[in-house]
Design goal:
17% of the residues are buried. The protein is 43% helix and 11% strand. The N and C termini lie far apart (65 Å). Helix 1 crosses helix 2. By secondary structure, it is of the alpha/beta class. It is globular and about 60 Å long. The protein folds into two domains: 48 residues, Helicase, Ruva Protein, domain 3, CATH 1.10.8; 98 residues, 3-Layer(aba) Sandwich (Dna Topoisomerase Vi A Subunit, Chain: A, domain 2).
Length: 193
Amino acid sequence: MINKYITNLAHALAKIPTISKKNAENIAFFILENREIGDLIQESLTGALSSIKLCSLCNNFAQEEICRICKTRSQSKTLCIVHNIVDLVNIEKTPFNGKYHIIKGKIDPIQGINKEDLDIDRLGNRIANENIEEVILALDRDVEGNLTSEVIIQQLKGRVKISKIAVGIPSSGKVSVTDRDTLSRSLSNREEA
């Protein structure tokens, strides 16, 4: 029989996306068997939770009220809308040099996530206050992401230029394993060689 503290730890770890119940249990056992790693995790987590908050402008991680990106790119007139901080981090690996707005998820009626549950309503005010000229929707192309994009487009239509990131076959992707929709969009958005 497993101790209630181990069970509680495994349940907490299983709440992390992509960690199954079985993996959560294995991680809990690993942490308890390797106390120095457990102590390091506890110290790091306590420090992060007490020091890091969300930027009041874009919802990125910040140690102050406004994150580094919002401070250093305050003059940018381009606002990239993403679902989450992981998306922001990935876009930051590109040459993009604009600002961000993290909406904290996707509209998903089946899961009970509505527009009001996301940070979409502040967009209009932010666009006006910061004189944004272009909004780039860098949202997932699944059903929920497309629904979220359409809601944002309807809210901002006529107020600002709105564009979506291009979609297509990834640079290391193979045509033979690419789904029909992606292949179709790749052909429609083809570039001159």
